[in-house]
Amino acid sequence: xxxxxxxxxxxxxxxxxxxxxxxxxxxxxxxxxxxxxxxxxxxxxxxxxxxxxxxxxxxxxxxxxxxxxxxxxxxxxxxxxxxxxxxxxxxxxxxxxxxxxxxxxxxxxxxxxxxxxxxxxxxxxxxxxxxxxxxxxxxxxxxxxxxxxxxxxxxxxxxxxxxxxxxxxxxxxxxxxxxxxxxxxxxxxxxxxxxxxxxxxxxxxxxxxxxxxxxxxxxxxxxxxxxxxxxxxxxxxxxxxxxxxxxxxxxxxxxxxxxxxxxxxxxxxxxxxxxxxxxxxxxxx
Length: 285
Prior knowledge:
- This protein has 285 residues and is an alpha+beta fold.
- The chain is 29% helix and 19% strand.
- It has one domain (24-284).
């Protein structure tokens, strides 16, 4: 004998079920899913990534470029086969012009990190060497101001949107990606949520030390990005990260030989050799 649920019971059952989670699309570059519509960087921003930003600032990216990019198509975007990588002139004239602008020298200068700064106590290791040497290319960028970090996030949002438009030849392909991405600095709650909820936290012993036997300087190995693909990775040695709140940074203190944080602390922000940053990315379906 076949039994059927009364309609009232069926309705109650359906309402009792949790709402389906939003469908996740391709994660924005460099991130893992955090919660709701937010992704977070697996790793702090590296010297290499910041150098790409500086190149863009010196060559073509500006606030005017940022304002023009949303008027470009979401898919089917083509570039001229030109070393300057300029957009085809079939789009709005002001959009095209924004990619031919002479960069703002004052803005470009503000984004640079003073090369004469000394990293930690290694008096012969300058920031210029630390940021340019291949040895440190995957180490976190340091001595960053809040403005520099915020501008990096803005530029990164633009570049990812352009990347999606270039990768997608049509509307169907574009649906693999989120319609809009917005990278920004993280909040204290987001950092703590990532640390407590994501699990598989990778620690990397970041620091600059002097090798007095060889009379040279060496950096501890950064996190291997291949091992960190699904991990929220933080640095030990009291390394802190810039928060969206302009006055604060956050980091973790660890017991020796322990993977568990002894204490999570926030403190007043100032650019320093043990302060870097990472982004979170807000997405729209």
